């Protein structure tokens, strides 16, 4: 595939560098580029600045999309946040345009052995821990994907063509991955739970997008599946060509202490990360040593404050009920537990979430940030018989909520081991730009009030 002198439209500059990196990459590879984004220019200043000198070679359309741009460009590079059913993409396809995204372009041009990681929960942690282990042997190993830290097309031209590269892939990335004709040498699906049902018409549709990670594998490739997840049977139904390896498995390491400290979900993440590391020749002795300094992943059950009897946890990337259930499983036995939760609905259910909250959190220790999902949470909790003696604490503003939590930390509470867990269980778009913006604000408020 050659981008030289091709008319390329980048649909969605975005806020998290992925769109900007894609625009910069196609410019640097000789394309004639237009960028279109529904947001106004003033909201995209950071992304525009990150374009550097490439910005001078790009035409911009802000605050709208023009039908003519989708009819007249040969290649449309789609930001992952753009729904695939949008009318503009239908217009582009009818006009004969080729649809790509950063993942499909990355896979077309990457020559390194690739480890692809996807799943509903744990993919960021798993990808980071695989990378952590690989660095013990491969000094030029790389980590890229579903993160603003090192977007795929910012990383691509820096790769050495031989060291392993770990790629975190969302379902949105995977929608167009078959366009590349490639799959990762090692594909990991951590698990599958209900998510993004505001974008996908069914769980099968969501799972099918995830399955794209292995559709172009060969018999020399590997697919790692969670043997305890109910959707593994669905993935087997595609008759993958790669060798299927199930996890968790016995690895010759005693991980019971780790499981108790970090939770069952992180045990699964670690188990599959070790499997991948072993495949690439990392010894058990090297792995055992590396486990002692596993990186803390930002905004994933991240301890942001630790004092004598108080811990505050930022788990803002918990955007599903199952993610908060996992966090409660980890921190439920840490003493007095306060939960801050709530947000925007993705057409998910909260029945099991409500049962878990009832078991783990006293009604007076639950603080809800209002939103469309929060209303469903309250209804599920009422059905579970949770609010019998008090009314739910619901707040419109995160700052006011944090102050209220501090007021409820009575002097006697400070004599106990106390954990404040910020695990929204929902997305963030009614009050924040995204979950990372939400996490940053939470950190600033904790610093201010604690």
Automatic annotation (TrEMBL):
Signal sequence region: none
- Give GO terms for biological process: cell division; peptidoglycan biosynthetic process; regulation of cell shape
Asked if the Swiss-Prot or TrEMBL record annotates the protein with the keyword ATP-binding, the reply is yes
The Mur ligase central domain sits at 117-242
Per the UniProt entry, what species is this protein from, by scientific name?
Answer: Candidatus Jorgensenbacteria bacterium GW2011_GWB1_50_10
Biochemical pathway: Cell wall biogenesis; peptidoglycan biosynthesis
Q: What are this entry's molecular-function GO terms?
A: ATP binding; UDP-N-acetylmuramoylalanine-D-glutamate ligase activity
Protein's UniProt name: UDP-N-acetylmuramoylalanine-D-glutamate ligase
PANTHER family cross-referenced by the UniProt entry? UDP-N-ACETYLMURAMOYLALANINE--D-GLUTAMATE LIGASE
Major subcellular site: cytoplasm
Origin superkingdom:
Bacteria
Record has Ligase as a keyword? yes
Q: Where in the cell is it found?
A: Cytoplasm
* UniProt keywords, alphabetically: ATP-binding, Cytoplasm, Ligase, Nucleotide-binding
GO CC, one annotated term: cytoplasm
